[in-house]
C-alpha cells in the first residue's frame, strides 16, 4: 500500500524510504493490508516467492493476484504492484514473456495503450499465444483501430477458440 500513497504520516511526509530505491522485488513482496480471501492468497504467494529456489512462476502468479485485487477493490495501486512483479521477474530473467504479458496487461488497464501495444506487438512476433493476440486486439480496440483489432482477435480465435476469444468476438460484433 506504500506504493499507492497510503504510507504517509499526518504531516503528509513519507513514512517509508524511497520505494524506487528498494527495487521492484522488494516492493512486490512488501506486506499488503487486508483480511479478505484475495489478500490471504497474496500473502501466501509472497511468502512462497521469498522462500522458493525459482521465484519466477510465483511472482507471475502474484502479479495476476494483484490484477485481481485491483479489479475487486477498484484500487489502481494494485496494478502498480502487479507491474513491480513483472519488473522483478525481468531483473531475474530479462525479456521474459510472462513478465511482458503481465506488464502489457497492466499498461492496458492503466490506459497506457501505446506502451501496451508495443509490448503486445513484441509478444506476437516472439511467440504464438492467444493471450498475446488478445492483448494486442484489446489495445488496438481501445485506440479505435477496429480493423486491426478484429484481425488480432481472429488470430486469437485461430490459436485458441475459447470463451476469452468468443467474448472479444462478440464485443467487436
* Class per helix and strand makeup: mainly alpha
Please give the alpha-carbon distance between the first and last residues: 40 Å
Radius of gyration: 17 Å
What is the averaged pLDDT score?
A: 90
Q: Tally the helices.
A: 10
- Strand % is under 5%
How many structurally independent domains? Answer: 2
Task: Give unreliable regions as ranges.
Answer: 1-16
What is the global morphology? globular
Order of helices and strands: HHHHHHHHHH
Overall strand count = 0
Helix content: over 70%
The main sheet comes to: none
Walk me through this protein's architecture.
The protein has about 170 residues and is an all-alpha fold. It has two domains: about 1-100, no CATH class; about 110-173, Serine Threonine Protein Phosphatase 5, Tetratricopeptide repeat, CATH 1.25.40. Helix content is about 70%, strand content about 0%. The protein has ten helices and no strands. It has helices at about 20, 25-30, 35-50, 55-75, 75-90, 95-110, 115-125, 130-140, 145-160, 165-170. Helix 8 packs antiparallel against helix 9. The chain is globular and about 45 Å long. The N and C termini lie far apart (about 40 Å).
Summary of the model, kept short:
Helices cover 71% and strands 0% of the residues. With 173 residues, it is mainly alpha-helical.
